[in-house]
Amino acid sequence: MLTKRIIPCLDIKDGRTVKGVNFVQLRDAGDPVELAKIYSDEGADELVFLDITATVDKRKTLAELVTKVAKAINIPFTVGGGISTVEDVKVLLGAGADKISINSAAVKNPGVIDEMAKEFGSQCVVVAIDTRNMDGIDFVHTHGGRKPTLLKTQAWAQEVADRGAGEILLTSMDHDGTKSGFANELTAEISSSLSIPVIASGGAGNMPHFKDVFTFGKADAALAASIFHFKEIPIPELKSYLIGEGISIRK
User: Fold this and answer.
1) Annotated catalytic residue within 45, 51, 130, 212
2) Is residue 162 annotated as a catalytic residue, yes or no?
3) Which fold, 5-244?
4) Where are the beta strands (DSSP E) in the chain?
5) Which of 18, 38, 88, 97 is deepest in the core (most CB within 10 A)?
């Protein structure tokens, strides 16, 4: 059995880590490089850095941050935000990132998933899917969750997998920042239908929520932000709890 992964997420705005609720009401959560070092030392399995305003502001994710993070930690990390071309990916991987995450660019031009997977390998390509339930149907949103699309989440997840994505980062906008638990039903539906790993994101509030998303949600990894940034749940304690609950997890 593959071990489940615990992944802190650092949302970056203007070079600082921020956190909000339902993608808004942002507050400062610290220096991203310092936080990265702490999480690496505490036993996080991977990290994700998302420049949450990169696409909106038409900016590119800064390779400088990637270089600093790569020097500070020894665990894999993914970078997303404003990435739209093979050249963007080349710069970030060259700066030290292990994977890149695309969202808006993939929706705008799905063929870019194929291009990136062919150029760098599927293992480097994570497609982030921000989803919100509207009248009982889950729809994909882009531009940091600001723009709804007509794409149904489950169908889009299947398409990105077929195009060569190595992993899906699934964020429930309805659950994001609420600490009410992950979107287990949707996560399980997508995870069960695909052969690639699914990272569940949005809603972590306590340790049982992680157990639930790994069991009921069938997620391969669980991502969270504020509960780690504001030291509500220490990663070593979370891992000990999950091991005690019979979840296969890296110590």
Assistant:
1) 130
2) no
3) TIM Barrel (3.20.20)
4) 5-13, 16-21, 24-30, 47-51, 77-80, 99-102, 125-134, 137-142, 147-152, 167-172, 198-201, 221-224
5) 97
